[in-house]
Design brief:
Radius of gyration of chain B: 22 Å
Radius of gyration of chain A: 20 Å
Strand content of chain B: under 5%
Number of helices of chain B: 22
Mean pLDDT of chain B: 88
Helix content of chain B: over 70%
Largest interface: A-B, 35 and 32 residues
CATH topology of chain A: Helix Hairpins
CATH architecture of chain A: Orthogonal Bundle
Structural class of chain B: mainly alpha
Strand order of the largest sheet of chain B: 1-2
Distance between the termini of chain B: 45 Å
Number of strands of chain A: 0
Oligomer: heterodimer
Number of strands of chain B: 2
Shape of chain A: elongated
Order of helices and strands of chain B: HHEEHHHHHHHHHHHHHHHHHHHH
Low-confidence stretches of chain B: none
Mean pLDDT of chain A: 84
Distance between the termini of chain A: 56 Å
């Protein structure tokens, strides 16, 4: 099955995430959608230039073809940033929820909650 | 040496935050002054020696993470240093200027500089992402009123934007195997399969358009720049400097793709649409900060029109207009911050006779308004003259004049705060320092206008010839348009009820994302259909 490669799955995940962002009003689901979307991008990158039976580019003598290390190095950075993004998003969400008592995107909030 | 421009502000911000003593503030001020001096020296050096590439580590050029400094980026670094210097003077005695604030505030300076200097796509992504985090923290700094909600919208929309950018980088890396912008533009020249760069082009342009707040993606901008409770220096830095990094990215990335993809006409009309929508939204508001932030949208549209006219003079005119806009918009936001504090309201109908009560702020507002509307002898007139020279087409000239009329209308409405009956009770005002800082920034608008030719030649090495008869004629047109603007405002706009309804229109978060996806699909469709 050539169709199910890392790249196609990555693209599909990206659009699933985008769909979630377009349609879901819940902020937690927004954060989850962003995570899904970013995982799609990571997969897309890592699957790039990855020949069959390739080995990691470690060691001095390399008999087999090696995987391209650049995308992997880039993605480890992007994953760390993504982690930070999720953490900050959740922090903002908790603050918002504590303050207004709702967990969805809406500008028409009733007054600020006083019991906190 | 240039990486120090990115690293040092972050480090100094951190030191000032950790130290938390009375030396922190003087440290920042002295540091910023030294930074400004060094930015100026480095600008002179680049001007004399030509573009410079700084590779990190012992990796050959093209593969290394590199910084690329040429005349334009060095000039942008100089602008950042200059504006930040005045912002620190302005905020020096304000309450919110405390150690907790120093670190994100100075980090943003380093990150903006990084966006201007980076010569590598992945580094650009990192700077975009980190600056998104820092900016949203700064927006919700006070955690009052709408700030948290606005900050969240800003944060998620822009995180999604930079994800699009990262996805685009993935496609580019798959095609070319390099991430260096100059190597990529060389590769694009010999590359013949133009179809295959359409998808990464569309993905990256979504991010760039989002960052520059081009229509229909500007909905986050008034929320971010006009957040009621954000400190005025934040609004000023966002509207004056940070939005410019998006425009700079547009210059770089469209230059990179130019051998393969050209969409000048589309972006020209998109810029026009942005300018008009921004202007209409702007003069239907009554909140002083919202007026100014929608006016930023309109000015960005004008700059976009100039960048996409396919002529050298209009291009340099736009770059000069980016500088000018940074100067007068910073001054206006800082002045608005002071006025909001004194009058304790943001409604411009409740502020009056500023000129009498606060002459210093009044004069700086007058200078900035004359600058932004393009009055003769002010910097706006030079850059608008240059943009207008980029085209011989009568239709395009007409569009430019309509945009300028929109700007004039906004500031006719804005200028009512200068006059009128005084309702402000006398209070003791202490921040002279802030007022002088605003005045100096806005008088730069006059200075760079009076010496406009020398400034453009100095900053961009672009010798400008101003035809004095034509310039005079433009001045005459300006006066006519000013009068027309006042008449139109008094007769039509002030009495219109439906304009007020426009202020109520607001996209939800999901709406913004849907527009973003729609914009992406639109770009792709246009690219493939042509």
């Amino acid at each position: 099955m050539d169709f199910i490669s890392g790249e196609t799955v990555g693209i599909i995940l990206f659009f699933i995430g985008l769909f979630g962002l377009m349609t879901k009003k819940n902020i937690l689901k927004t954060i989850m959608s962003i995570s899904i979307l970013q995982s799609g991008i990571y997969l897309f990158f890592i699957a790039d230039d990855l020949p069959n039976n390739s080995i990691p580019p470690i060691g001095e003598t390399l008999e087999k073809p090696v995987a391209d290390p650049v995308p992997q190095a880039l993605m480890i950075t992007a994953i760390v940033i993504g982690l930070g993004i999720t953490a900050i998003g959740l922090t903002m969400f908790i603050h918002y929820k504590k303050r207004y008592g709702i967990s969805f995107w809406s500008r028409n909030r009733s007054e600020e909650r006083s019991d906190q | 040496m240039h990486y120090l421009f990115i690293l040092l502000p972050i480090l100094i911000g951190l030191i000032a935050y950790i130290a938390k003593n009375r030396f922190s503030k003087p440290l920042l001020l002295i540091f910023q002054f030294i930074y400004l001096v060094f930015a100026f020296l480095s600008f002179l050096q680049i001007k004399n020696s030509g573009p410079q590439i700084i590779d990190m580590g012992n990796v050959p050029n093209g593969f290394a993470i590199s910084l690329y400094v040429d005349n334009i980026s060095a000039a942008f670094v100089l602008l950042t240093a200059l504006i930040y210097f005045f912002l620190i003077i302005y905020a020096y005695n304000h309450d919110y200027f405390e150690p907790q604030f120093f670190f994100p505030f100075l980090s943003l300076e380093g990150l903006i500089t990084g966006l201007f200097l980076s010569g590598d796509l992945f580094n650009l992504f990192i700077f975009l992402e980190v600056s998104t985090v820092i900016v949203s923290i700064l927006i919700m700094y006070n955690k009052k009123e709408q700030a948290v909600y606005d900050g969240m919208i800003y944060f998620f929309v822009n995180v999604l934007g930079s994800s699009f950018f990262l996805f685009g980088i993935g496609f580019i890396y798959k095609l070319f195997g390099v991430l260096d912008i100059r190597s990529l533009s060389k590769a694009m020249e010999i590359f013949t399969l133009n179809d295959s760069v359409y998808v990464p082009f569309a993905l990256m342009m979504v991010t760039v358009s989002l960052k520059t707040a081009i229509s229909p993606l500007f909905s986050w901008l008034p929320k971010a720049h006009g957040t009621p409770s954000a400190p005025p220096v934040i609004s000023a830095v966002l509207s004056g400097l940070y939005i410019k990094s998006g425009l700079y990215l547009f210059i770089r990335i469209s230059a990179m793709y130019s051998p393969a993809v050209q969409m000048d006409t589309f972006f020209f009309y998109l810029g026009f649409a942005t300018a008009i929508i921004g202007a209409v939204m702007s003069f239907s508001q009554t909140d002083i900060k919202l007026i100014l932030s929608y006016s930023t949208v309109s000015q960005v549209g004008l700059i976009f029109m100039g960048l996409n006219m396919n002529s050298e003079i209009a291009f340099y005119g736009s770059v000069f207009h980016i500088f000018n806009h940074a100067i007068f918009k910073t001054a206006l936001f800082l002045a608005a911050g002071l006025l909001t504090k004194y009058y304790k309201t943001r409604n411009i109908h409740e502020m009056n006779s500023v000129l009498k009560n606060f002459p210093l702020i009044g004069y700086s507002i007058i200078f900035s308004i004359l600058g932004i509307t393009g009055a003769p002898f002010f910097n706006g007139s030079i850059s608008k003259y240059m943009i207008a020279h980029g085209t011989d087409n009568l239709f395009a000239t007409l569009l430019l004049n309509i945009v300028n009329l929109g700007t004039i209308l906004i500031f006719v409405k804005f200028s009512v705060i200068l006059f009128g009956n005084n309702t402000w009770g006398k209070e003791k005002i202490k921040d002279r320092l802030s007022q002088y800082s605003v005045l100096i920034v806005s008088s730069l608008a006059l200075l760079s206008g009076l010496f406009g030719r020398r400034v453009t030649e100095f900053l961009f090495d672009y010798p400008l010839t101003v035809d004095s008869a034509e310039y005079l004629q433009k001045g005459f047109v300006y006066v006519l348009m000013g009068l027309a603007g006042i008449a139109l405002y008094k007769k039509v706009i002030q009495q219109n009820k439906w304009l007020f309804k426009l202020t109520q229109i607001e996209l939800t978060f999901n709406g913004i994302i849907t527009f973003l996806t729609g914009y992406f699909l639109l770009l792709l469709t246009i690219l493939y259909i042509r």
